[in-house]
Amino acid sequence: MADGRLIQYLLDDADGAPLTFTHVRTLSQALTVLARESYDVILLDLTLPDSEGLVTLETVHRARADIAIVVLTGIDATDVAIGAVQRGAQDYLVKGRGDGQLIKRSILYAVERHRANQRLLLAEAAFRNIDTGIMVTDAAGKVVRVNPAFSRVTGYDGHEMVGGQPNVLHAGVHEPAFYDELWHQLRETGAWEGEIWNRRKDGKVYPEWLRINVVTDESGGIAGYVAIFSDITFRRRAEQELLRQATTDPLTGLANRQLFTRLLTSTVEQATRYQRDAALLFLDLDGFKAVNDTAGHSTGDAVLREIGGRLRGAVRISDEVARLGGDEFVVILPEVRGREAAAAVAEKLLQETTRPFAEDLTGMRLTASIGIAMIPDDGVSYESLLHAADAAMYQAKRAGKNAIRFFSGHAAAC
Question: Is 231 a catalytic residue?
Answer without folding.
Answer: no
